[in-house]
Amino acid sequence: MKTLAQWLEFIERQHPKTIALGLDRVRTVFERMQMQIAAPVITVGGTNGKGSCCAMLESILRAAGYRTGLYTSPHLLRYNERVRIAAVEADDDVLAASFDAVEAARGDLMLTYFEYGTLAALWLFAREQVEALVLEVGLGGRLDAVNIVDADCAVLTSVGIDHVDYLGPDRESIGREKAGIFRAGRPAVVAEPDPPASVVNADGKKLLIGRDFGYVDQQSQWSYWGPSGNRGGLAHPALRGALQLRNAAAAMCALDALRERLPVSMQDVRRGLAEVELPARFQVLPGKPQIILDVAHNPQAAQVLADNLAASGFSPQTIAVCGMLRDKDIGGVLRTLAPRITRWHLASLQGPRAASADELAGFVEGECFASAGEALAAALGVAGENDKIVVFGSFLTVGEALAWLKNNKTSKR
After folding, report:
1. DSSP secondary structure string, 142-159?
2. Sorting pLDDT into bands at 50, 70 and 90, what band is 411?
3. Residue 53 pLDDT greater than 50, yes or no
4. What is the distance between the alpha carbons of residues 255 and 53, in angstroms, rounded to a whole number?
5. Which of 28, 109, 227, 306 suits a disulfide with 256, CB 3.0-4.6 Å?
């Protein structure tokens, strides 16, 4: 049997396109594999915030004692991060076996990297008989591979402008695609405070933030209200950032909606929110100078990052280490963050979709580097101990920075 590394190399070569939306191929293979998903399924989509919401759902459900399955993407350092059972990453041999099961059923159908991964994860969750399953949408919703599984509850965290080549040019089009994970007669939690009509009018029993559930930030604590009533005196989630309350409220509302099948106590909620972890969402690393990791890669996420930087206290210098993909709104992201940045270190990324540092330099004035690791090393070289270094722009950027930090223990930190 192939190793995990060999499987990943193999599946990268199997489809001529990195992204090829559509459910026909993946559904056919899913049916051939005869998988039975018996656990309640929560599917989470959105332009931003879906990873945080998934992490909170997993953490609360784990605190309640459920054997959870969690499927997310992309990963930062290891493919294994994408597939978690009982909050533990699947090991190489288990993932290799799951890819082998997909290949045995594939026949002559071509699958994308993401489709292979989704089917492999679902096969593993079915085999391991998880008791609660949380699935993160990869791109869009309606035609995303995870949508072959009917969600018992769908969550839509936000609707912003991103992936316009695949989802459409405006929020109505994008909302329509994202609401494709909703199912008629089943709860659909909408945490976007200004949902387009395409979301409001989609199938499903909509639970809208501000109407059916919501939260109040009371500075040192917060309160939630939803289908099961009011819950006050809550400590802030372990994930940093003001918008995490909205994500937490969405997670709590989803669990409210499924309370008959997945009952959780307020003690479970409190513990889950206190213990939740998710790398690279305004993640502040220990030591000086302060390094902040954030995968923000569209203007909406960049605005949240800018707000979080503004609330994080004064620094003489805030140095940006930024690398992005060419199909993103590079100008929109960089312009949004520019008022908070005093020095730019622009990094080239690798791969067919990657933008070069020179391309980024067309929008802001800064130094150009061949990689995110080199850009971070240079930033550490010029930063004072009271400065901030913020690494953002892509999962690839943050992943490269984390790998560089792991391999270069600097005396400065």
Report:
1. TTSGGGGSPPSEEEE---
2. very low
3. yes
4. 12
5. 227
H or E stretch including 223? strand 222-226
Q: Which residue type is seen at 292?
A: I
Q: Is the dihedral of CA 357, 404, 244, 221 positive or negative?
A: negative
Q: How far is CA 312 from CA 21, 278, 283, 366, 373, in A?
A: 39, 19, 12, 23, 24
For residue 231, the SS3 value is: strand
26's enclosing H/E stretch is helix 24-33
Nearest to 155 by CA among 36, 257, 78: 257
Would you say 196 and 46 are in contact if contact means Cβ atoms under 8 Å apart? no
Asked whether 398 and 280 are in contact (CB, 8 A), the reply is yes
Closest CA to 210 of 232, 197, 192, 234: 192
Q: Name the pTM for this structure.
A: 0.95
Nearest to 333 by CA among 374, 369, 305, 354: 305
> Two tokens at 203?
């199938």
ω before 196 within 30° of 0 (cis)? Answer: no
Q: Per-residue pLDDT tens for 230-263?
A: 999 999 999 988 899 999 999 999 999 999 999 9
Tokens (6 digits) for 232: 């006050």
The answer to whether the beta carbons of residues 238 and 248 sit under 8 Å apart is: no
Query: Which pLDDT tens digit goes with each residue over 59-81?
Result: 999 999 999 999 999 999 999 99
What is the C-alpha separation between 321 and 308, in angstroms, rounded?
Answer: 17
Distances (CA, A) of 105 to 8, 110, 116, 130, 201: 17, 12, 11, 22, 37
- Amino acid in position 155: V
